[in-house]
């Protein structure tokens, strides 16, 4: 159990690197990790998940510049998500499910940090979800996976259109549509629907909290992380989903 937790923390660390490199360019894949501010290479003991961040109190050892809270957050999130899925996911669905949640976690990180989603973690991954469904590596049928893809894209497209008509502003990015389409491809139309409902609810609460705390009248927050958390919760807590889906 402890070994698994450490392993999944390390996987979260790797997802941080993937997210960082998707945001800042591919050349990083051949370099070792370094401080984004002073560019000093990091020693292995500065790269221990969560612990290094805590010991350094969230600051670079060399230049004292703060290191984003997103590093330990993503590591812990990854650990909790995979520990839970490891226990409840039937083994034949596990590999594809792990690829999917990894992509979701990468998307959460890039969207919080830059308000951008990489297509490598959303749209370009959707065919894998459809293929895996046809081959029996995901619970829903291939047809349901395709429907999930279309529903995911379609609902948000309609909402975005309606919102634009009503307010004259773009409330959602193309990235959000592609993210929900990908979610639908991997967990089906019901999953996409759940991710949208749970994500909108969580997003509204977080938005209100932020607006009250900062005193701003209007602020832009990324929607992707909330869709992502919604999708993760669909996989992690099927009992809760079932209770709400009856209504
Ligand atoms: Zn530094």
Could you characterize what this model shows?
The protein is an all-alpha fold and 247 residues long. It contains nine helices and no strands. Helix 3 runs antiparallel to helix 4 and helix 4 runs antiparallel to helix 8. The longest helix has 41 residues. The mean pLDDT is 92.
Main sheet summary: none
Q: What shape does the CA trace take?
A: globular
**CA-based gyration radius:** 19 Å
Structural class comes to mainly alpha
Number of domains: 2
Number of helices: 9
Order of helix and strand elements from N to C terminus: HHHHHHHHH
Low-confidence stretches: none
The count of β-strands is: 0
Ligands (ions, cofactors included): zinc ion
Q: Beta-strand percentage?
A: under 5%
Percent helix range: 55-70%
Mean pLDDT rating: 92
Distance between the termini: 37 Å
What's this, in brief?
With 247 residues, the chain is mostly helical. Helices cover 67% and strands 0% of the residues. The protein has nine helices and no strands.
Q: What are the main properties of this structure?
A:
single chain; binds zinc ion; 247 residues; 67% helix
Write the layout of secondary structure elements.
Layout: H1 2-24, H2 51-55, H3 70-88, H4 94-114, H5 126-134, H6 142-167, H7 174-214, H8 224-236, H9 238-245
Bound molecules: zinc ion (ZN).
